[in-house]
Amino acid sequence: MEKRKLIDFVLALLAVIFVIVTVLAALYYAPLEPLDVSTVLYHQDDYTGDDIRVKGVVQDLSGTEFALEDITSAVFIDVSYADSGDLDAGIVNGTTVYVLGRLEPDVGIAAREVEIADDPDEPAGWRSPYSAKIFYFHVPAAWTSFLAFGVVLVCSAAYLWKGGQKWDTWALSSAEVGLVFCSVAVISGALWAKAEWGYYWDWNDTKLFSTFVLWLIFIAYVAIRAGAVRHESIPRVAAIFGILGFAAVPISFLSSRIWTSLHPNVVATSQGHLSAEAGAVLMLGVVAFTLVYATLFSRRTAIERSVIEIEGIKEQLEDAE
Amino acid sequence: MTLDALRIAQKDISIELRTRERMTSTILLSLVIILSFRFALFGFDMELSENPHLVAPILWTTIFFAGIMGLESSFSYEKENKYLDGLLLLPTSRYSIYLGKMLANLLFLIVVDLVTLVFVVAFFAYEPGGAFVTLLGVILLGTFSFVAMGTLVSGMTIAAKTRQSLLQIALIPLIVFTVVIPAVAATSKIVSGSGDVMPELNILVGFGILSLLLAYLLFGHIMED
Amino acid sequence: MGEDEDSGPVAIETRNLTKRFGPKTAIRNLNLKIQHSRITALFGPNGAGKTTLIRILSTLSSPTSGRVFVKGMDISNNGREVRGRIGVVLHDPLLYDDLSAAENLRFYCRMFGSPDSRVDELLDLFGLRHRKNDRIGVLSSGMVKRLSIARAMIHDPEILIFDEPFSSLDSDSIAKTMSLIGQLRDGGKTVLLATHHLREGYQVGERLLVMKKGRVVYDARKAETGADEFESAYDELTGAGS
Amino acid sequence: MIGVEQFYWAYLVIWAGIVLYVLYLTHRQNRIKREIDLLKEVMESGGK
């Protein structure tokens, strides 16, 4: 009993520490700094398939030189052309390049992906680059919800296979906590979409749609369990539903990769890879959210155990009568 | 197994013919929905002959609403009146019970579909013309797919013994992608006379068969106390 | 748990049967053998686990652990066969209010694979032929009870299980039901009945079992136990009447 | 388009949601603890 409390405490402490570190890192370590290009000293475009790779050396307003090396598509730039002219030029005088991570003069911005808009009227890069930092919370939240629903799948299967109260308790707890994280992912995504796309939700987007369905499924799961009389058939039905519902997780995860989707693919695709800084902060976020999940999960199971204890006591009382 | 399922379906149908409760209330609901659409669109001076793509949402909104209402009473009729144990005591597999219920629901909903189609044709002066057979095919397949999963989930929510009915909340996320969108998309294509509906039909048939398979695997588990 | 010393062929056997509903234990590690061609009466206060036991024996409910054999068949693997061998009369009549007596019986008759002539046979046996075309909803509760027994006997099962056969019946119907149960036993059927009607249960039963909190706490043969002796033992065990 | 500073609301929304959930869990836990204590009291006093 005491050991469990100690583990809970350590988990909660770690979660809080990691969350604070992530927030600070997202805000300060991986800032998006605008680099207002005043002069393009050297500039070269290479076409590889659909991508434009840009190399160049530019000066900002203060005259400091920055090397832009091997800039590929995707992630973090607002291209506001001073004079919309030569599209192929990519970077021209007056371009504002938002760079993820610290700007280090002279060292350059090597390997930091910057997207060059194809059309100045419809920039394909981030319209609202600061909002893109929600990425450090949105992705870990989505990942944690997938993890949580994975736990629901495993525990539900184990419950059907072997039986045993604890599997059911774990599945229920994981579903509820996972729903919280799924809500965070959906809401943060919608806020970001408003900033970036100009509207909260796009119903034609398969990624958004499938995640929404996933969200609905686990709302249904929690609703089936909520307030229901404790009876053996409910855990069994819920377990079956949890297994069916998990089918939406791979659909949600893969949808933007299988079908065309507005949703950016940043992690683990050929479309873009993260810079070392962004990757590090993202990993930090994933660890922090997983720890928060573990803490909440442990608390939720404790509540469920107490509920069962209460029912046990009540039964004892009835027996004593 | 099939014979048992047919007998259970026949029992449901003869009860329905006796009481006509389900059919009357569902068809009335269908009428109300269609009339609401009619007056809403009439207010905007819209005619279906000019906007044939409106047929799809009107038709399927009605069918899904009426269908959920019908599915809900399918098992709750047995449960609330405490007949369910009688079915479970029959020397047949649980899957036959599912199949029987599914067939009765399917037949019931097909009647509602046809009546709704008549309403749409009558109130909106919509003429399917040559597309009639394909339209009917899509409606039947959509209904089949909907009923196959709906009967399974209906059994589930009844077995869960929750106080309020959770059929809608549990069913809708499962059918949005798999039934609602393909059915509406295919109907839109047919009424506007453009596009190939085979991909949608494949999804509907595939999901219907998948539901039957899932029911085969799960229905025994669901119905056990 | 007292084993019955006169062992005949066993119709129903439970081995380490346990049933839990969440934290509640309805049946605790029950080992029970029910002999063939005999009337076993199961008594016990509410919540003793009688109904749960009957639901498990009739495959409506599955055990949490342990096994149950009906005529040597494990019910968890042979649900269909077991259901074909047993007739179950539950508290609810399991007859559709909206269908007539004959229609109800015909439905069950076909489902159990018995010939349709069995319907009239049973209606005659239970004296309900004149009401065969009436809806169940308009019949008296005594008639419905008799019909529900007819429903359970539609496939002429070897084992009959009754849950509270005497409740909500007038004394005349109770007497009829009791004599019917006696006839069944004389016809070589195995009968298990769960009831809290002590007197009636004692009268028809040959073996008397008392359950309390999921356990069998009393097991005796009627031939060796007087009615008063049984009643006082029951009161003492269950704490009733205090 | 939402401005840069305004967008920090989004982070607040996320964390506020999680904190609210933690508060809800704590509330439930406390309520259950009270109930357990009460039941135990009843059991000790009424256990004849």
Describe the structure.
The complex is a heterotetramer of chains A (321), B (225), C (242) and D (48). With 321 residues, chain A is of the alpha+beta class. Chain A contains 7 helices and 4 strands; from the N terminus they run H-E-E-E-E-H-H-H-H-H-H. Chain A has 2 domains: 2-22 and 131-320, Four Helix Bundle (Hemerythrin (Met), subunit A); 35-123, Beta Barrel (OB fold (Dihydrolipoamide Acetyltransferase, E2P)), CATH 2.40.50. Mean pLDDT of chain A is 71; it is low at 70-89, 99-128 and 267-273. Chain B has 225 residues and is mainly alpha-helical. Chain B has one domain (3-224). Helices cover 81% and strands 0% of the residues of chain B. Chain D has 48 residues and is an all-alpha fold. Chain D has one domain (1-48). Chain D has 1 helix and no strands. Chain D has one helix at residues 8-46. The model of chain D has no long low-confidence stretch (mean pLDDT 77). The chains are: A alpha+beta (321), B mainly alpha (225), C alpha/beta (242), D mainly alpha (48).
Characteristics:
heterotetramer; B: 225 residues; D: 48 residues; 0% strand; rod-shaped
Summary, kept brief:
With 321 residues, chain A is α+β, with helices and mostly antiparallel strands.
Report the CATH topology name of the domain at 10-92 and 158-228 in chain C. Rossmann fold
Rg value of chain B: 18 Å
Helix % of chain B is over 70%
In percent terms, what proportion of residues of chain C is strand?
25-35%
| CA-based shape of chain C | globular
Question: In the CATH hierarchy, what is the superfamily of the domain at 10-92 and 158-228 in chain C?
Answer: P-loop containing nucleotide triphosphate hydrolases
Number of strands of chain B: 0
Which class best fits the helix and strand makeup of chain C?
alpha/beta
**Radius of gyration of chain C using CA atoms only:** 18 Å
The major pleated sheet of chain C works out as: 6 strands, mixed
N-to-C SSE string of chain B, H for helix and E for strand: HHHHHHHH
How large is the count of helical segments of chain C? Answer: 8
In total, the number of strands of chain C is 10
> Total domains of chain B, how many?
1
Write the layout of secondary structure elements.
The complex is a heterotetramer of chains A (321), B (225), C (242) and D (48).
Chain B: H1 2-19, H2 21-43, H3 55-80, H4 84-88, H5 94-124, H6 132-159, H7 167-191, H8 198-223
Helix pairs in contact in B: 1-5, 2-3, 2-5, 3-5, 3-6, 3-7, 5-6, 5-8, 6-7, 6-8, 7-8
Chain C: E1 10-21, E2 24-35, E3 39-43, H1 50-57, E4 65-70, E5 73-74, H2 79-85, E6 86-89, H3 101-111, H4 117-125, H5 141-152, E7 159-163, H6 171-186, E8 190-194, H7 198-204, E9 207-212, E10 215-221, H8 227-238
Parallel strand pairs in C: 3-8, 3-9, 6-7, 7-8
Antiparallel strand pairs in C: 1-2, 1-4, 4-5, 9-10
Chain D: H1 8-46
